[in-house]
Amino acid sequence: MQYLEFLDRFHDLLTPRTYLEVGIRNGSSLALSRCPSIGIDPAFDLTTTIAAPHELFAMTSDDYFASLGSTSPFGKAPIDLAFIDGMHLFEFALKDFINVERYCTASSVVVFDDMLPRDVDEAARDRHTQAWTGDVFKLRDALVALRPDLRLTLVDTEPTGLLIVSNLSSTNRVLEANLPELVATYVQPDPQRIAPEVLDRSIAVTPDAALSMADWRAIRKRRARQRRFPALFR
Question: Hey, which end of the chain has fewer CB within 10 Å, N or C?
Answer without folding.
Answer: C
